[in-house]
Amino acid sequence: MKHLDIHIKGIVQGVGFRLSTKVVADQLGVKGSIRNMADGSVFIEAEGDDFSLEQFKEWCHEGPQGARVEELSLNEGELKRYKNFDILKKAVNR
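User: That's the sequence. What structure does it adopt?
Assistant: Structure tokens below.
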């Protein structure tokens, strides 16, 4: 199991990015959360096995129809042992 912090910039708000990401995460068995950020980006915390996270990262590079991913940064972090993949509603400064 690994934990990844994924920060995605581009046209990623108002295009169904959070909901689509949850659907993909649930299909892959990835746990964590996604939230909109005040600067127009999205921030994802994702936990899973290497194969699932690799597939998840590939999807994040594209996103749903209507999205345009311009920049994606990844950092490994400490496992938080999420039980689900949740959409967090509140935008936060980062």
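Residues 50-62 form the longest helix (13 residues).
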